[in-house]
Protein 1
Amino acid sequence: MRNSRRSLFVKTLLRVASSAGLLATLLAGAAQAQIVATATTPVQLTAGEPVVTTLTIRNLFREDVTVNLGYDRQRNIVLQVKDPGGEISSRTVPVRDGVGRRGRVAITQGDTYEQQILLSDWGPWEQEGVYEVTIAITGRVEGESGRAYGAPSPAPIRVVIAPRDEAALRQTAARLMQSVLTARSAQSEIDAERALTSMADPVIVPFLGEILDRSTMGHSRVIQALGRIGTLEAVEILRAAWGSTNEERAALAGDAIRRLEAARDSK
């Protein structure tokens, strides 16, 4: 009888220990999941379109937190990419000159933070087919209390690149041009202009020209994109911009034309 009671007691202890271990595992998992990152992309893109995703970070902690996304809210975002050929690579965004946004983002308890990310800045998406991508945030997450938390779990997305479709490219360029011209905030304008000028296809040239025609701003990214594309139509637009009363635009256009002429003479 005494042995039977001892055996029952041991079994009970084992069950309690097992339950406690399971509970600890669940609690640890829940703690890691208290700040959640997700991302969404279009179902399919045509070759040459900008690859854009919306990153959402949700704070489920019982206090306000800050998440350090790095320079311009991009530097601490790392992509793990498996391309259509099966090659796996890690991508970080190149450091750019100029002024960037403050990297630390404050998220109140129970709130979410959303940011558009131009994945084209992290490298090329030239192959047709399916890219399996994981977006990881490597920056520090800190509570209002000063407590450091683990980074959000990586957000998986799928990017599907279809063969080049000129009509789709024109439609995308027209939409982004309109977004540049009608943006209600400086950041929205920057996001749209970055996406448009990331497209290297000559079909965007007329839309770049229309931005310069309808806006009095310098639009350095537009000038630089025209210089990279370098078609006859692009050069004509640059020459017109060279004579602009906007000094910044005129200087940038002149520099772009001189670079194109130097490249032509060196051949």
Note: The CA atoms of residues 10 and 16 lie 10 Å apart.
Protein 2
Amino acid sequence: MRSGRKKPSTYALLFSYVLPYFGYVLVLALGTDALGKAGAYALALAASAAGIAFAWRWYLPLPGPRSPAGSVAAGIVAGLAGTAAWIAIKAPFYEAGKEFFHRRQGQLNLSCAQCHDDNAGRPLRGDTISYGLGNGYPAYRLEWQTVGSLHRRLRSCAFGVRAVQFDYGSPEYVSLELFLAKRAEGVAIETPAIRR
């Protein structure tokens, strides 16, 4: 830290790192409908940059770089590297989940896509077929009389089509959950939801 510069309080440090993040998230949460996806992302990046510019005086350099600018640059590079690594790690699971969603299975020889893509919104045994999104889970299901996980719902669905019920947390259900999360991108999170 430069000599003569007062050490910032913990709250000032927290504020300087949290403000850009919340600016980004808040604009995306509120502005997507009004501005469209591209406009909301552009405004979110601008809000995040404004937050960084406003809180610049509170940033502390990392031990390596000697200046706040070097510290911020190192943070951005580390964040981009982490994002790239995370995408590389998730990619095979996403593809496996997509394949699982479209694969016919069970004694009824049905795929998830046949119900939740082709027949979504249609009635089935006194209920309406959902779009197969996991944005409400964990959810309170009336048939369970308690809150249950998405994996519990996937097992119930497999039971309904007389297919193999995998264990909770199995690679098959984790991959399917990732695929369903990608399908639900842009849909409001409503957990804990209430389902029949």
Note: The radius of gyration is 23 Å.
Protein 3
Amino acid sequence: MSLGGKLALVFAVWLGVFSNLSARAQSQTSGRILGNVRDPLGHAIPQARILCVATATGESRTGETDDSGDFVLIALSPGTYDLTVSSSGFASSVFHALAVGVGETTTLSAVLQIARNVTQITVNEAPPLIRTDSSELGTTLSQHRAHQTIARLAGTLLKCRSTGRALRKTVFRSTASTLTIFPCTI
């Protein structure tokens, strides 16, 4: 055997030993989560999204199920994880405090229920409280309706307490543009 052949053989053996040690070192410092995702009838759910969040650090990992509904998350640091499984048309399933140990495989089976028709509406802006550009939202009260409103207000004020004494009488004076309320304690 030539010198080049001997060096190639030594290098190949060295590479094999080193890669085996590296793989063993990795498996001795991390763990993994292995699972499957099914529907209520037991059928596999392919391409289900997996979100795994370390509870101590908030670090997240994502994955997806294969055509058989199986998934694996490898090289996870030892600790506890919250895992969420979701897929279109199904309600999400959340697993809390999954323990992952060094060199261990944590297994789970998720059964996703059919999602009900739920509509989520997100409002990013609040509507204006007062429209100043038109009277579109305004209203005019009739005199009868104004008197009813005042009477309800008076009843409420009579139930209030002011400086430790009950309000016994409230005098209302109304003009076309002003409503004045005078609380009188007796």
Note: Residues 54 and 81 are 4 Å apart (CA to CA).
Protein 4
Amino acid sequence: MAQPMPRQAYSTHEETPEPEIDKSLPRHDQAARFCEIYKLTNFTIDPETGVIDVNGDVDLSFGFRESIPVQFGKVTGNFDCHCTKLTSLKGAPYFVGGYFDCGATSITSLEYAPQTVNGSFLCWRTHITSLKGSPRRIGGDFVCDNTDLTSLEGLPDSIRGYINLSNNKITDYGILDLLYVSNLKYIYFDDDKDKTSVPGPSYGDGLISKILNKAHTSRDIATAQKKLKLFGFEKLADFSMEFIAKEEKHEQEVQERARLNAERIANSPPLPWD
């Protein structure tokens, strides 16, 4: 399968701190100053909250801020803050029409991440340990390789491209949850040790990936479980408690709908031809 070229992971720019935003200013003025510093155009600022909506791209990459000092709302283009010193995504937009890239930063969670990203979502080479806070819907790829992930809790509901989980620390249950993500095209999972020193994303496409992708195509999950156990991946062959709870709730809802439907039929008047 074709793989995108890795992004540049380190800046060659001279480290020049960006101008500070005067916190004593009204929120609107702080937002206006931020837009001036980053040369943003085609934006609107809410006069009361200072929330910035941008019709176009926002590029904060290769910067030296540890936080986003303003709050974005909707960005119709790309939002790029990769290769910065960010420790949190607080201030990020709730909607991104293009891609969202926070890779090669110091973030430890996806809290405050956009909930809808129409393009790809990239959080590679970060210190996240779970996917809590990740977008519910991703219109492109989900690139989260080379992180500190130990859990897939918080998986998106829909991914319209591939998901790259290579070179993480996931050794326990939850991998099979991937087979129930809507629209997912391909899964990269295995370790790819030869590429961990190369700047940018890496793509593990070994035994576990092959088992998962075959099961995803055929919907034969039972066989995937058997193969994972056969090759010594017992802990990966179980669903997460989060997924099991979700399935139990879904089954209860199905049963309740069936009960209500049966009750409605039983209480309805007889048809003329009965």
Note: Helices lie at 27-37, 207-218, 221-230, 241-267.
